[in-house]
Amino acid sequence: MRFLTTGEIAAACQVTIPTVKRWIREGHLAAFQTAGGHFRVTDEEFRRFQGAHRIPPRAADAPAAVVPKILIVDDDVALLETLWEALSSEHRYKVEVAQDGYEGLIKVGSFAPNLLILDIRMPGLDGFQVCRRVKADPATKGTRILAISGHGGATSREQILEAGADEFLEKPIALDDLYAAVSRLVSSDAR
Predict the structure, then answer these.
(1) pLDDT tens digits, residue range 91-146?
(2) pTM for this model (two decimals)
(3) Do 5 and 40 touch, CB atoms closer than 8 A?
(4) How far is CA 183 from the centre of its chain?
(5) Are 62 and 20 in contact (CB under 8 A)?
(6) Among residues 62, 68, 56, which one has the least CA distance to residue 12?
(7) So what's the pLDDT on residue 58?
């Protein structure tokens, strides 16, 4: 069974994510919420919804656009939601989230992101450890890493860049700075 995000459904129906969330709130589309507060819909339910509302399926023979994948790892749930919305709203990226370093490493392996946006100060497995492990693994060493933190300034910047991060942004993050960094890192992605 496959689960679809609100972004994937919005792209398939050529509507916005808030429209999909409204369909869910109004009971037109059955969904469940993840621990992070994101909605997921089974592919079976989405096919039922398409048929009931006469939404044609996407052409199977049309070439699928290659959408860069971004994984955001941060223990701040509100920031995760904000970054997810900011990066997934225009359907330019497929975005997943993780709330700690352990979950982040698991998703790096299963989701295979082109870009990892990584908080460096988290309890348990911190961003420095995650960064070193991602860069040490031959299967994931090409993953670009944008480190973020609200602590430490220049010292943290030096340490995380030495650990293998490609760029660093200090919190609070201006959306223009985020978009510029993501665009640079995704466009320079060698994978």
Answers:
(1) 889 999 999 999 999 999 999 999 999 999 998 899 999 999 999 999 999 999 99
(2) 0.67
(3) yes
(4) 14
(5) no
(6) 56
(7) 63
